[in-house]
Amino acid sequence: MRQSAFTVVTPVLPGADAALSGLLRRIGDDVVRDTRLGLAGFDRLHYASFSVVPAADDGHSLVFEGNVDGTPAAFLERLLATSAPGVDEVYRHCAGYPPVDGGGAGAALRYLRGHDVGASAFHVAWPGHTVDLVRREDRLRRFIQDLLDRPDQRHLREADAATVHRAVVEAVRGEPALGWALREEPLPFGVRRPWTVITLLAAPLVAGAVTVAAAAAGTGPHRRAARLALAALGTVTAGAAVELRRAERADDRRERDRPTDWQTVYAAWSRNLDQFQHREDTKGQNHLSSVATIKPGLLRQLTLRAVLTAVRLVAALSPARGQLGGIRSIHFARWAITRDRRHLLFLSNFDGSWESYLGDFIDLAAVGLTAVWTNTDNAVGFPRTEWLVRLGARDEARFKAFARYGMVPTLLWYSAYPDLSVANIANNRAIRTGLLRPGDGDGPQAWLRRL
Question: For this UniProt entry, which segments traverse the membrane (predicted)?
Answer without folding.
Answer: 195-217
